[in-house]
Amino acid sequence: MPVPTLTLLDSQLNTLANLPFLKMNGLGNEIVVLDLRHTSHIVTADEARAIAGFARAGFDQLMVLHAPRSEGTDAFVRIYNNDGSEAGACGNGTRCVAWAILRNSDRDTATVETAAGLLVCQRVGDDVFSVDMGAPRFDWQDIPLAHDVADTNALPLRRDVPGLPALDAPAGVSMGNPHAVFFVADAAAYDLPAIGPGLEHDPLFPERANISLAQVVDRQHILLRVWERGAGETRACGSGACAAAVAAIRRGLADERVEVQLPGGSLIIDYREGGTVRMTGPAEFEWRDSLPPSLFQDTAA
Ligand SMILES: N[C@H](CCC[C@H](N)C(=O)O)C(=O)O
Q: Location of site Could be important to modulate the pK values of the two catalytic cysteine residues (predicted)?
């Protein structure tokens, strides 16, 4: 289905009303892509929450494209969770941004910049993109944690769960956003919506954290569920898949190429210790719409 070209905005526009946007998903992780490269508007947390509340534009993450800040990049991208909080990384959203930038282009590579750094995105198939997500970070200040710990690959964090093995000693990883990865024998057995919020807000994480349950099936396959910071349990989390694969490889549980199976589908993660993490997976366009002026009345109220 030909996708109508997203009308780039004239610089006079200073509100989001009537703004065209793309509704997409990355393995069911609900993404809205908003192109503000020709305006100076910075989306506020209230506006992000208002867009999330707008019926057709419900999202897990909002990816806002701004004018490039660095030479050789296509856009600077700000990432909002549906609670209005900002994040430094969103793997699924980055694939959707690459799709939006490259869809009417003969280029196969797009470079976007986020608060966490540069992301080189390659179209490797119809609606399939491979993103260099950069190097994972493990220092307590980078994750970040509230204080130093003996080993960030086994954090001092435990939750006893009646009738199930305790969640204990998760791996701490930053992919530009904070992740705690618990390795478990049966990821489906846990009531993640009951357990997730307390862990997301644990005092060990001064900026909260994304909480994963990783079940290593074999050295090439991990089943993963993610309670996302600022969004709750999603059908897929790209940076979470990167963090889980990196943590498994660091613990000697997986090979350098891992298929991470999330509820919404699979991502291929490539990582060699000391290098960067490559994530490959789909980006799906759903529909295009505009935000009605009514959405932005009294958001300050
Ligand atoms: N909730 C995350 C951002 C979105 C990550 C996820 N949707 C992905 O695909 O990486 C955070 O606050 O760090």
A: 179, 228
